[in-house]
Amino acid sequence: MQVRIAVLPGDGIGPEVITEAVKVLRKAAQTCGHEFTFEEALVGGAAIDAMGNPLPAETLQLCRESDAVLFGAVGGPQWDDPQAAVRPEQGLMGLRQGLELFANLRPVKVYPELLRASPIKPEIIADVNLMVVRELTGGIYFGQPRVEGTERAVDTMIYTRAEVERIAHVAFRLARGRRRKVTSVDKANVLACSRLWRHVVDDVAKDYPDVELEHLLVDAATMHLLRRPRDFDVIVTGNMFGDILTDEASTLAGSMGMLPSASLRGDAPSTTLRRGSGQGSGHRLGLYEPIHGSAPDIAGQGIANPLAAILSAAMLLRHSLRLEEEAAAVEAAVAAMLKEGYRTRDIAEEGKQQVGTQEMGDLIADQVRN
To answer: Which are the contacts of 276, defined by CB distance < 8 A and separation ≥ 6?
Structure first.
């Protein structure tokens, strides 16, 4: 299989963790007889410094012409002025819009070896395995902001039936390949957008009589996510709520450095995939990134956790390239290294071997080869 992957390392620890993800992808390709080509481009603060634009036209064009996009992180204190007309985050939001990526999949899995890395009691988080499906191109993030001097500011939240329908279908289809339960999270007791959201999700649910549906208000969902996380299978929610809930869910996994994500367009891929055999297998453009930020406080120290980026690479193999065996091999390699006791600083514990960013990447790449 010949594959072209756009690599956007971005800022802070982005280049460090993406280097390890690319290393693992190269090893998977070499081991399984594929040909992966990686092409780097600027995004975020690095692109602002070099070209004055967080998403240069050349970067967007490369992504459109690629089979998948591997993304690091954007932002940092040098670009932190909230009054600035140009900000690093605009690069990521522009990619989502420019590539028509509306479905953000964020799996949350608690590894048995990391039960004590979380501040939540082990008996509460044991066996947690849920998926958050976040709508990515609507809601308050893409509203119509208005600033009225220094005394008043307005943001608008907009959702249409079509936007809610398409993300709800993604969630229900994914649930059919899992434990057949969807939890829709909104704020229908207050927000008109949420009342529309709930009504449309109820309509979509009629097409999936084999899938259980429950509705939760977002404030209740944040509580239950920490009190009874095993009860969740697939959570579907809007843009802002999804952003907040998945950051909270990182507490379950022990660290933000453990959570990958995939941003897709079109229908959710089948949950039962076979190894692809080239373009004829139907590549699906997607953007893959760890959910953590650029962490400028630890950038350049070689201590960042690359596992979220590496697990994002596994999602790339599965969802864009339809290489299920290769994706499973990467995920198994991560699990194996954790079981053998290797830890980066964010998930370190007494009696385990602490390693740096590069060493963790080397260990997983070697395991994939084996």
So the answer is: 1, 282, 283, 321, 322, 323
